[in-house]
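Re: weekly structure request thread

Next one in the queue (78 aa):
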Amino acid sequence: MAYFKVNGYWKDNKTEFSDYIIREFDDAIPEGETDCGFTDDDIFFYGLSETDIIEAIRLGEGTVQDFVLTNLVDIIEN
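Done, posted below.
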């Protein structure tokens, strides 16, 4: 299982965000449990691999998401 810290911004108002956590798989962390020290509340988005994130960064505003990823900050592996 991998987690990724990313930076980016919201498409609608260009508000930037930093160090948001993306979990590689889209299976939520069960209520009251942790994985790699993260809870479900810590996760910004589920279901993007490192390859997906790199592609989203390349596409910029051309993705279907409401946000734009600008860079991959860190990879945390379990």
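The longest helix spans residues 50-59. Residues 51 and 57 are 10 Å apart (CA to CA).
Next request, please.
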